[in-house]
Design brief:
Largest sheet: 8 strands, parallel, barrel
Structural class: alpha/beta
Number of helices: 15
Strand content: 5-15%
Strand order of the largest sheet: 3-4-5-6-7-10-11-12
CATH architecture of the largest domain: Alpha-Beta Barrel
CATH class of the largest domain: Alpha Beta
Number of strands: 12
Number of domains: 2
């Protein structure tokens, strides 16, 4: 099997689970880890919220005892905030890997100069990466970003070179601009150009990996060192099983039947309830129902019971009503799940594009509260 090395961490397969807000909690990470090898990153946390000790942020920053390596993503727009958050996590021995988010495209973040807009500000971006890397010491820091703000304001090559120069252990490119959001096709050729520009650390590719064959194709076409899986595993944790197979030279198993999907749904609910309690489990799982059942013919009444279940017991009972011998609807394998909106003009602070250096400070308070 082809491995991926990120600093001192050797990942058995060149596969990374992308942090996704409200999705990649400890329960979902466990579900994915049970399917196949990879690096499984916890959902994004605000650096300032973490330092201030917000209860939910601290809870999301925790890992199961058997989870290794422990990986999470941080977001911040002030070097001091990132420095303090990283130093705290490393000092507590809480993490083995930290990823930095510079790819969030949502308006409530970019309109304050954060997220996917921030690498336009070269000095600030450099200071943020430097602060995190220096505070992390031996713990590897990686950086994820988009191609840029839009086609006329690309930042990814500068972002990659700066991250490499400042000691990042790897970089990840989501091969879309902020303007695209999640629409259209990811531009894998940009990943190839980044691979040519960044030569001393791994370059990972993200975007439009719906099946295991897509991961192989991306690595062959771009020369990237690994793949980052986001929307492709929503409702399909077994994608990591398939990825483990292809990178081991084994055939990809057939897609699961509805009965096998139902078993995975029950396992998911159980993990959520054990880790976070019944209320969180029932509420959180609602968004997963549509992803798991995409393409299956399930009556409206049963779907409503699944999404409106008042308790874990009722939810598990509704899952048990799903017919077991229904084959997987292969015609929806490549149908997007999760975010699909875009393109949309990027909201930015007044005068933000006038210069790539200097300018007014990013509004840290507004951005930190957004969550991305």
């Amino acid at each position: 099997m082809r491995a991926l090395r990120i600093g001192p961490i050797e990942v058995p397969a060149p596969v990374v689970l992308a942090p996704m807000a409200g999705v990649t909690n400890a329960a979902f990470r466990t579900l994915c880890r049970e399917q196949g090898p990879g690096l499984f990153v916890a959902e994004m946390l605000g650096a300032r919220s973490l330092v201030d000790g917000h209860e939910m942020t601290r809870r999301l920053a925790s890992f199961d005892p058997d989870e290794s390596p422990r990986s999470l993503q941080l977001y911040g727009v002030r070097p001091r905030d990132l420095r303090e958050a990283v130093a705290m996590l490393v000092g507590e021995g809480a993490v083995d890997h930290i990823d930095l988010n510079f790819g969030c495209p949502v308006p409530k973040v970019t309109r304050h100069g954060g997220g996917a807009a921030l690498p336009w500000r070269l000095d600030l971006y450099r200071d943020l990466v430097r602060a995190a890397v220096r505070a992390a010491g031996e713990v590897p820091v990686t950086v994820k970003f988009r191609m840029g703000i839009d086609a006329e304001h690309l930042t990814y090559l500068d972002a990659g070179r700066i991250a490499e120069a400042e000691g990042a252990a790897a970089v990840t490119l989501h091969a879309r601009t902020a303007y695209q959001l999640y629409s259209g096709a990811a531009d894998w050729s940009a990943i190839a150009r980044l691979r040519e520009a960044v030569t001393s650390i791994p370059v990972l590719g993200n975007g439009d990996i719906w099946e295991a064959a897509d991961a192989v194709a991306m690595m062959e076409e771009t020369g990237c060192d690994g793949v980052v899986i986001g929307r492709g595993c929503l409702g399909r944790p077994w994608l990591f099983r398939d990825l483990g197979a292809v990178f081991s030279g084994r055939p990809v198993p057939p897609p699961p039947s509805l009965g096998e999907v139902a078993d995975m749904m029950s396992r998911h609910v159980g993990l959520l309830a054990t880790r976070y309690g019944e209320r969180y489990a029932v509420h959180t799982f609602r968004r997963h129902v549509a992803w798991y059942l995409q393409g299956f013919e399930v009556g409206r009444g049963l779907r409503n019971r699944l999404t409106g279940a008042p308790s874990v017991e009722a939810l598990v009972a509704a899952i048990a009503e799903l017919p077991r011998d229904v084959p997987f609807p292969v015609h929806v394998l490549r149908t997007p799940r999760g975010h699909t909106h875009g393109p949309r003009p990027v909201r930015l602070p007044h005068g933000f594009l006038d210069s790539r250096v200097g300018g007014p400070p990013v509004d840290a308070a507004a951005v930190a509260a957004s969550g991305g």
